[in-house]
Write a structure and sequence with these properties.
The complex is a heterodimer of chains A (256) and B (372). Chain A is an alpha/beta fold and 256 residues long. Helices cover 41% and strands 22% of the residues of chain A. Chain A is built from 8 helices and 10 strands. In chain A, helix 3 packs parallel to helix 5 and helix 4 packs across helix 6. Chain B has a domain of 153 residues: Rossmann fold (3-Layer(aba) Sandwich), CATH 3.40.50.11890. The longest helix of chain B has 27 residues. The two termini of chain B are 32 Å apart. Classes of the chains: A alpha/beta (256), B alpha/beta (372). At the A-B interface, helix 2 and strand 8 of A face helix 15 of B.
């Protein structure tokens, strides 16, 4: 059987198609204004790429903040449950997931069976999230993709003290005005986010091994900063951005 | 249900209720902040105690007096006073609880424009022998200060009558809670919240009769089916967000008991109806489970919470805190580890005058309920 997982996030919408044999394919597009439309389109596009019809898909599970907007989904599950299932599917040794999404960050603990045991979520502000990085990239006039490359070159990362997105942006602008090199600022931003997310993790207690999910996990500069802050290695998740959609598909497959 | 209508109306708009009560009866309305305000004395003085709940509006005036990291109850209540919405109050009582309420008392005295003002300086420990005597002294002093302020005499008979009235009220609120603990489908949690909230506002004699009528009506009511929902326990301070109850239900949970200022902490414990009424009022505070701004022993709050959770057969606890509420935040790590040791899952939710964005709130509640 084939199951679909659709993760409608605040910035991007992701779909994964999964069968008993494994992942058939995944697809990412921007969410935009209409979450329902984004969810429908991402699945249709992925199915078309794989030469599949809607009727070939037995189960559809939706997740992410827009999970309730899809009337064609069999079930809506929270992204915390789905990120747990996705990370566990990819590596059943994982016990802790740091998920940095577009508008919030979460730390999720798993038990030996892959079930979510505890979680903590930063929902106060955009600081330490994907959106924060996007705002900083705009202020620095560099592509987000270049952040890891720049961070490696830093020798003395700038100190970003204020982790409110709006105030941090003006802090970064002051650093730019002072002539601080871009790489030092980028490394400073990574450090600030890492400290913030590790502080969140400490509230529920980190369990090894740790992995990272969410689009921000693709930023290797930030990942190594979090490793340093945790004094622990981060086990690479091969599909961080579609991990939630994958987890949804895994749970769909399990429904039978 | 007809018996619920007035409670819903008062809870939705307590100001209009208080204003018209004052107009009709001419009785003074006395504001207060916390369950440590000795309402029995207020009623014995012929006045109406009125609990102040903060605001649901954005705060613009209070920020000139209070830092942004004071809790939304303190900031929001000051906002309401500065906006002139509490003009119907004749006076305000500030029991000595947390630091913020202490500081608010001074700011309030200078800026709120409410004529009468009483600080009730309670001891921090309430259950030692010397604290009991001291507490009885504080309540006696409050009685005299209230007599002076309102220009009345609070007679012994009036006090004894007030104590009996509050026992009726608290007994009936407790009965309602117990009925719902047994059968959560009997009355919606949001409605029960409205009942408790109105109980802190309404004319207490009228209230006592209405509570009795409600209990009777519920005895004849067939409960709604809530079998699929997980039993939950709410712990924390003031809940000004009754919509949380329906969000919880939509997430698969139903609250069955609480340890909240706007819940059991208001009505827990009866007052002995024999002997000196002032000493008896003090004794209720000494015996009752302490709030986090008071101290009973190193383990009493955790023990109390676990006992209440077990009695309620709740599967999990949601801590509902006002952001920047120090006393609750200081106690949280200890209470959470007590629950962890007892194998009770918990999560914490911090709120201000508005709830967090609904999407993220639902994600957290749904996930928590699905873990149970």
């Amino acid at each position: 059987m084939i199951a679909a997982g659709i993760d409608i996030g605040s910035i991007t919408t992701k779909a994964v198609l999964l069968s008993e044999e494994g992942i058939l394919g995944s697809h990412v597009r921007f969410t935009g204004y209409n979450a329902e439309q984004a969810g429908r389109t991402v699945l249709d596009e992925l199915a078309a790429q794989l030469g599949l019809k809607r009727k070939d898909i037995r189960r559809i599970i939706s997740t992410g903040y827009g999970r309730r907007s899809l009337d064609f989904a069999d079930r809506a599950l929270t992204e915390i449950i789905c990120h747990g299932a996705g990370a566990f599917y990819q590596n059943s040794g994982i016990r802790c997931i740091i998920d940095i999404g577009g508008q919030d960050s979460k730390v999720i603990l798993l038990d030996e069976t892959g079930k979510v045991k505890d979680f903590v979520m930063n929902d106060k502000c955009a600081a330490g999230t994907g959106r924060f990085l996007e705002v900083m990239a705009r202020a620095l006039e560099v592509d987000l993709e270049a952040f890891p490359v720049l961070a490696v070159k830093a020798t003395s990362p700038a100190r970003i003290s204020n982790l409110c997105t709006v105030f941090a942006e003006s802090e970064v602008i002051s650093l730019i005005a002072k002539g601080t090199p871009r790489e030092e600022i980028v490394a400073g931003i990574h450090q600030a986010i890492a400290q913030r997310v590790v502080a969140l993790a400490r509230r529920i207690g980190v369990r090894e091994p740790v992995t990272m999910t969410g689009g921000v996990a693709r930023n290797s500069g930030l990942v190594s900063e979090i490793e340093r802050e945790l004094s622990l290695p981060i086990i690479e998740n091969p599909l961080p951005q579609v991990n939630g959609a994958l987890g949804a598909a895994v749970l769909g497959l399990r429904m039978g | 249900m007809r018996e619920l209508e007035e409670f819903r109306r008062v809870a939705r708009d307590p100001y209009t209720y208080a204003e018209s009560l004052k107009k009709e009866t001419g009785r003074p309305i006395i504001g207060s902040f916390c369950s440590y305000a000795p309402e029995e004395i207020v009623v014995a003085a012929g006045a109406v105690p009125f609990r102040i709940f903060g605001t649901r509006e954005n705060i613009t005036r209070a920020d000139a007096h209070l830092q942004a990291y004071a809790c939304s109850l303190a900031r929001g209540s000051l906002e309401e006073a500065l906006a002139g919405k509490l003009k119907f109050l004749d006076g305000t009582i500030f029991p000595h609880t947390c630091d913020t309420i202490q500081r608010l008392s001074d700011i309030w005295r200078l800026n709120a424009g409410i004529p009468l003002h009483w600080d009730v300086v309670l001891p921090v420990k309430l259950n030692t022998e010397s604290a009991r005597d001291y507490l009885a002294g504080v309540i006696s002093k409050f009685r005299r200060d209230m007599e002076t302020g309102l220009g009345v005499e609070i007679g012994e008979d009036a006090l004894i009558e007030a104590v009996a009235l509050f026992n009726r009220i608290r007994g009936n609120l407790n009965t309602l809670y117990e009925m719902r603990r047994k059968s959560p489908g009997l009355i919606d949690a949001g409605d029960l919240h409205a009942v408790v909230k109105s109980s802190m506002v309404m004319d207490r004699r009228d209230l006592a009769a209405k509570l009795e009528a409600l209990v009777e009506a519920l005895r004849r009511t067939e409960p709604r089916d809530v079998d699929g929902l997980h039993r939950l326990f709410l712990a924390g301070g003031v809940c000004s967000h009754p919509e949380i109850y329906s969000l919880l239900e939509e997430s698969g949970g139903v609250t069955v008991w609480d340890d909240l200022c706007t819940g059991t902490r208001y009505f827990e414990g009866l007052i002995a109806e024999s002997g000196d009424p002032v000493a008896a009022i003090a004794d209720r505070y000494a015996i009752r489970a302490a709030c986090p701004a008071k101290h009973a022993s190193l383990v009493s709050r955790g023990d109390h919470l676990i006992r209440a959770v077990r009695e309620s057969r709740a599967r999990g606890v949601i801590f509902l805190f006002l952001k920047f509420c120090d006393p609750h935040a200081f106690d949280y790590p200890y209470l959470k580890s007590s629950l962890d040791e007892a194998g009770v899952p918990s999560m914490v939710l911090e709120v201000e005058e508005q709830l967090p964005p609904e999407g993220q709130l639902r994600t957290r509640l749904e996930t928590f309920v699905s873990l149970l």
